[in-house]
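Page 42, continued from yesterday. The earlier attempt failed because a stray header line got pasted into the input along with the sequence. Redoing it now with the clean sequence only.
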Amino acid sequence: MRQAAIVLAALLTTGGTAPPAEHFAVILRHGTIVDGSGLLPYQADVAIAEGRIARIGNLSRATGKLELDVRGLYVAPGFINIHSHPSPDALATAENMLTQGVTTEIMNADGSGSSDLTAQMARVAANGLAVNIGAYIGFNRVWTEVVGPSDRRPTAEELERMRGMIAAGLEAGAWGVSAGLDYKPAYFARTDEVIAVVSAAGPWRTNFNNHERVTPESGFSSSNGIAETLRIADAANLIPVVTHMKSTGRERGAAARALALFDASERRGRYAAADVYPYLAGMTGLGALILPPWAQDGGRDALLKRLTDVSVNERIVRNAEQTLIDRFGSAEAIYLPTLRKPLTAVMEEWHAGAGEAIVRLVATSNPIAIIEFGVESDLEAILRHPAASIACDCGATTATATHPRNYGSYPRVLGRYVRERQVLTWQEAIRKMTALPAATVGLTDRGFLAHGMTADVTVFDPRTILDHATYENPAALSEGVRHVLVNGMLALRDGKVTGARGGRTLARGAGMPSRPMKVNAPLHLAVKGRHGRAQFDVDIRQDAGRREARGKLKISVPDNEASLTITRFGVLQVADRWVSLTAQAMMKPAGIERPVTITIDASDPRAPAGEAAVLIDVEGVRAYRLVLPTTAIRQR
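This time it went through. Structure tokens are written below.
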């Protein structure tokens, strides 16, 4: 305790010259703020300093080094894509993401990526980043490295090794455990084996996001796959995230059945989340979800060997054709973007049936395929669900033969499903792109426009925002996103990338649990008294319908005459025995104001019993820690 108090005192007495009063790096003037909370928009100016939100309000007397008139435009937190597949060489510019308003990507979705996150993050950041990038630790990668491509049972030693790899990924800053149990060879893992491996993440209070496993034995039932995802997460003590949620096959039109599983989980006291993108077709390798699992056992070389056996080849063709019908309807559902033609055109050229054409294509070029899977009513129902974030199953790319989601997802939601179809309100759609995904993965200082939050900001025109990418022209840029700031740096101005590389690699740290996003609930926290050498005087609350906290918060070290006092409150976030607050704070005796994030965490199961960690993050000086007895905290 003594050492922690000394560190805090050193933090609070750090020297420096305060910037001139009411002069900022950037001011966005006369905009309409849609702050991520889900509350109604309002009119205000926004000032940015030191990469954080410094002021929100009437700033007519303030000046900025850069001032942008955003009259008539919406000012929102930067959009957070929690299902990302970026091309590392595209992250330095990320034009397709910035023109959608995205400022943060969480990669290694569907269980992909590297098991060495530290090395992977260094590689992707080597040429600079136009957007922020974080990573999951991928179950599929871990399983493949240890078990290999074949359908076999892992040994007890191998299970323990995989558990260690999951824990190592989380120690390196992973934002959860991702999986794609629909993809081989992870498909071969039994449910109890998946639980045994991913339960290593349970003490980290994080999430398990999974592309659900859709099996022929279940009749390719999406709801069965979703139920398995919830069951795995429940057993592993993780928050489930059903990723790019959909209803397929014979369950088209039955999204209500799948969503009822979420409601049932809530009634059991287990929060469940999802993400969804605004298209009725996905993209993956042509054979990945159509060729029978037994044919893919052992990997591609084993598959190609099987195809040389005439009788086995014929069996694979028949099985593939039946799967196509049962899961996706017909050959008309498939478009091949690299060939720029539908599967039916290939069938006609080769005078072949659908199954034969698919098998021949997989054996030669194995192209990517865009495959229709759903109906509009299901998509709209999933978009409306309060726990469903907007994600795009895309990432920074320069590819032109691809899915239009890479260039159009977020503007498509805002233009089509908000402005035109009114499936969502502006404020609810922005919540699903910002604060909700932030809470789902554990981010604490992004997702809201509030004092002290990191200045990831997207400014767009609600009258014109729209996607232009189509399946025939998938790389057409969207319109309507006017300006984007990443960590306070202007990355997009007047719809054009600036070349700024203000993005950062983001690692999940202590006090960043995955959690439900509480909206419109009254919140109150009080801590008073001296604990160790630090004095706490905290009494803050956030009333229902209010977008910012109020009250008082002062932490001081009397022996050193050092103190931190909140001058402008940001948003108060609350979970089970956990609170986090961003704000502007005055540091004494230095007499300087700094943006801060303060987290009081009494729910970390790895902490000693009866102790709560107080984490103080001042921009540029990270992870200062004090300890409180949990009995000193009153939360309601």
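Notes: Confidence is low (pLDDT under 50) at residues 1-7, 13-20.
Reminder to self: strip header lines before submitting.
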